[in-house]
Amino acid sequence: MHQITKSNNLFEEAQKYIPGGVNSPVRAFKAVGGNPIFIKKAKGAFIFDEDGNEYIELINSWGPMILGHANSKIEEAVQKAISGSLSFGAPTAIEIEMAKTICEMVPSIEKVRMVNSGTEATMSAIRLARGYTGRSKVIKFEGCYHGHGDSFLIAAGSGAITLGEPNSPGVTKGTAQDTVTVPFNDVNKVHEAVRANKENVAAIIVEPVAGNMGCVLPAEGFLEGLREICNAEGIVLIFDEVMTGFRLSPSGAQGVFDVQPDITTLGKIIGGGMPVGAYGGKREIMDFVSPVGPVYQAGTLSGNPVAMAAGLAMLSQIKEDQTLYSDLALITAKLENGLQEGLDNLGLPYTINRIGSMISVFFTSEKVSNFEDAKKSDLNLFGQYFREMLKRGVYLPPSQFESWFISKSITPNLVDRIVEASNESLRVIHQ
Ligand code: PMP
């Protein structure tokens, strides 16, 4: 029996002092029903709640823990950094090492600025694109999530869809007017949007592989099409690789699809689990950032020495492990095949999308290549599936509109356990 008494008590207490009891909305399990489990610790492929239940980890802190939890090299690096004080607010050598590593790993990045979250990275990138071009509009794609900056909470994905607030109150009309949304994977609609806002589009921002409406791959020619439009119109192309950076290859989705953006935003894996983000790109554009240029952006804790130590320990392991991405793709393909076989055996027509170690099961029989398609999923059924999986010791993202993240700690044996749990869960919810 899956007991979560302590978690339930903690959730009750948490709601007294924290809005909704959580510090980020999707953690509340609101979309899937039931109360969130409160986490005590995690190691490798496993996460443990306050009641002592063990789960196979498929959230991995929403992406960062690509090597599994409590990685010894990252922890050692953090401990060493801590002994020299937690923060200086002054330049350090380790920041250069971090910047150099990023520039080497992601060739489209010639200069990079560290920040403290993915949200900060995208907010800063968009301001930079506006400052650089002298234009005001931004094109984004429905169902893509770029953090909670005002400009991006228009048809936004992730928790914003999950909780039914793709357009958040509190974002002024003026701000919303400067964001133009188009369907993902539709280059023609981008052309139309650019024509309708002639000479006034500063940037096109896109998750090159969307992870925030569930995992949705770019159609053939989509990213190339965006690159061409940006070249022709003098628009800054921003790849938001907060999720895909160092997840799909050492140089992110841009390495996989061989399309180079002007600016890349990074987060998650780059911090090794610490709160870190970054934005970087062409030298000419990055030199518009203060203090060398006029576009202001700053941060008391940016480039924090402990965060840099964690991030570098993560990136150096990624660089050294020649088979990391092929191993991750192989194990996730095994998971995909197992899940697909289970669906086939039960005669269930649901859709699985996967690339590398990102995977989503959509509870719809139709192909999912944009937000409209993703929204056809049966959310109630997903909620039931989620709860059955949790009872069986598998910790999935608590929303249909999120990707699952596979870590290096997931073994073939664990994949078998996930598939078995999935088959049982599907049987139960379709009784
Ligand atoms: N961009 C993308 C593509 C993301 O997936 C996220 C977070 N899920 C963000 C931006 C925002 O990052 P953060 O939560 O660190 O602010």
Helix run count: 15
Quaternary assembly = single chain
Beta strand count: 14
Order of helices and strands: HEEEHHEHEHHEHEHEHEEHHHEEHHEEH
Q: N-to-C terminal Cα separation, in Å?
A: 20 Å
Q: What hetero molecules are in the model?
A: 4'-deoxy-4'-aminopyridoxal-5'-phosphate
The CATH superfamily of the largest domain appears as Type I PLP-dependent aspartate aminotransferase-like (Major domain)
The CATH class of the largest domain is Alpha Beta
Descriptive report:
It is an enzyme of class 5 (isomerase). It is found in: Cytoplasm. It catalyses: (S)-4-amino-5-oxopentanoate = 5-aminolevulinate. This protein has 431 residues and is of the alpha/beta class. The chain folds into two domains: 5-70 and 322-429, Alpha-Beta Complex (Aspartate Aminotransferase, domain 1), CATH 3.90.1150.10; 72-320, Type I PLP-dependent aspartate aminotransferase-like (Major domain) (Aspartate Aminotransferase, domain 2). Helices cover 39% and strands 14% of the residues. The chain has 15 helices and 14 strands. The protein has helices spanning 5-17, 72-82, 93-105, 118-133, 159-162, 173-177, 187-196, 222-233, 252-257, 283-286, 305-320, 324-345, 371-374, 379-391, 412-429; strands at residues 39-43, 46-49, 54-57, 111-115, 137-141, 179-182, 201-206, 236-240, 263-266, 277-281, 351-355, 358-362, 394-395, 404-405. The strands form three sheets. The protein has a seven-stranded mixed β-sheet, sandwiched between helices. Helix 2 runs antiparallel to helix 11, helix 12 packs parallel to helix 15 and helix 14 crosses helix 15 (412-429). It is globular. The model has no long low-confidence stretch (mean pLDDT 97). Bound molecules: 4'-deoxy-4'-aminopyridoxal-5'-phosphate. 4'-deoxy-4'-aminopyridoxal-5'-phosphate binds at residues 62, 117-119, 122, 145-147, 158, 207, 211-212, 240, 242-243, 267, 277.
